[in-house]
Amino acid sequence: MAGKTLYDKLWDDHLVKQRDDGSALIYIDRQLLHEVTSPQAFEGLRLANRKPWRIDANLATPDHNVPTTDRDKGIDGIVDPVSRTQVETLGKNCDEFGILEFKIKDIRQGIVHVIGPEQGATLPGMSIVCGDSHTSTHGAFGCLAHGIGTSEVEHVLATQCLVQKKMKNMLVKVTGKLGAGVTGKDVVLAIIGKIGTAGGTGYAIEFGGEAIRGLSMEGRMTICNMAIEGGARVGMVGVDDTTIEYVKDRPFAPKGETWDKAVEYWRTLHSDDDAVFDKIVEIDGTKIQPQVSWGTSPEMVADVGANVPDPAKEEDPIKREGIVRALKYMGLEPNQKITDIKLDRVFIGSCTNSRIEDLREAAAVVKGRKVAAGLKQAMVVPGSGLVKEQAEKEGLDKIFIEAGLEWRDPGCSMCLAMNADKLGQGEHCASTSNRNFEGRQGFGGRTHLVSPAMAAAAAVTGHFVDVRELMN
Amino acid sequence: MRAFTQHQGIVAPMDRSNVDTDMIIPKQFLKSIKRTGFGPNLFDELRYLDEGKPDQDCAGRPLNPDFVLNQERYKNASVLLARANFGCGSSREHAPWALDDYGFRVIIAPSFADIFYNNCFKNGLLPIVLEEEIVDKLFESVEANEGYQLTVDLEAQTVTTPDGESFSFEVDNFRRHCLLNGLDDIGVTLEDADAIKAYEDARRQSAPWLFNAGN
Question: Is the ipTM of this complex over 0.90?
Answer without folding.
Answer: yes
